[in-house]
Amino acid sequence: MLVRRAAAALLIACTATACSVTAGSGPNADAPAAAAKSSGKPTSSPAADALAFGAGSHWSDTDTDGSHISGTTTVIGYRQPAQGVSLPDEASGLPHPDWAVLDVKVCAATDSTNVIVAQGPWSLRYADGTRLAAPRISAEGVAEPVYSVGGAVVRPGTCYRGKITFSVKHGSTPTGVVYDVDSRDPVEWTVPKA
After folding, report:
1. What structural domains does the chain harbor?
2. pLDDT tens-digit profile, the chain (194 residues)
3. What is the pTM of this model?
4. Is the dihedral of CA 35, 17, 124, 45 positive or negative?
5. What is the spatial distance between Cα 176 and Cα 28, in angstroms, rounded to a whole number?
6. How far is CA 147 from the centre of its chain?
């Protein structure tokens, strides 16, 4: 279970390319919003070991350079329809979408090397097994503070928290939130019923 820095660099490069995000862009940039797409990773019904919102998932690995890397990943909350999102429906790619906001946090352990985080590993899971990948939107109008699209460094003993704005089909509600980092088993949190 290695966390690969090369994979993180590739993720950052792919994220920036796929979303028309350029250096220096951010929540106030005029970058177009990308539509959310299914990750194509079918899953079964809700995982029996799914966590509740607010519960952290601790992980520990050896990085590609042999250094220790570890931390805790937590889903803080999910809101649909979202408040604080002012994107036009046309930015979604869906007719009459619901905008949703996922609030997440990653903390690097004090004895860890730097941890790189981005929206890429996050997705919403639905009862039929489909997943809606994080759209990697950082344009003006998304919920703030924006969780990094291009990648952010979390230094040992610190945390990084932010919001990911999703465009979801009107009337659909996810049953889970999945954090799926290449080289580790995916972790899931159960979305509370409204």
Report:
1. 2-190 (2.60.40.1240)
2. 333 333 333 333 333 323 322 222 333 232 223 333 334 444 444 567 899 999 999 999 888 888 999 999 999 999 998 877 777 666 677 777 888 999 999 999 999 999 999 999 999 999 999 999 988 777 777 888 999 998 999 999 999 999 999 989 888 999 999 999 887 899 999 999 86
3. 0.74
4. positive
5. 30
6. 7
